[in-house]
Amino acid sequence: MQQIPFDLHYKEILVETRELARQVNFRGSPTVLVNGIDLEYLPEPPEGNLACRYYKSGLPVIEEIKYFIIQQAGKGITE
């Protein structure tokens, strides 16, 4: 397992209402953002919606999510 060379702060938002979906420009569930960057690099929608999320290659597995987090959150970190 790859070690993360930085502190990781995690925030989960449970989007249960249309109002909150609009406030956070929700892309659908489940969505993974790291520093505002979407796992599939989708742009923010013009208006968020309370909906399910479609992934082109199917739901991402844990290793894909970990790699994305390390890749995005690790940008700018020198070893």
Can you characterise this structure?
Helices cover 23% and strands 5% of the residues. The chain has 79 residues and is mostly helical. The protein has one domain (18-73). A two-stranded antiparallel ribbon has the order 1-2. A hairpin with a 2-residue loop joins strand 1 and strand 2 (37-38). The longest helix is centred in the last third of the chain and has 12 residues, at 62-73. The radius of gyration is 14 Å and the shape is globular.
Total helix count? 2
State the shape: globular
The pLDDT mean sits at: 86
Q: What is the β-strand count?
A: 2
**What string, H for helix and E for strand, traces the elements in order?**
HEEH
- Class per helix and strand makeup: mainly alpha
Biggest beta sheet attributes = 2 strands, antiparallel
Looking across the biggest beta sheet, what order are the strands in? Answer: 1-2
Computed CA radius of gyration, to the nearest angstrom: 14 Å
Distance between the termini: 18 Å
Uncertain spans: none
What is the count of distinct domains? 1
Helix content: 10-25%
Beta fraction: 5-15%
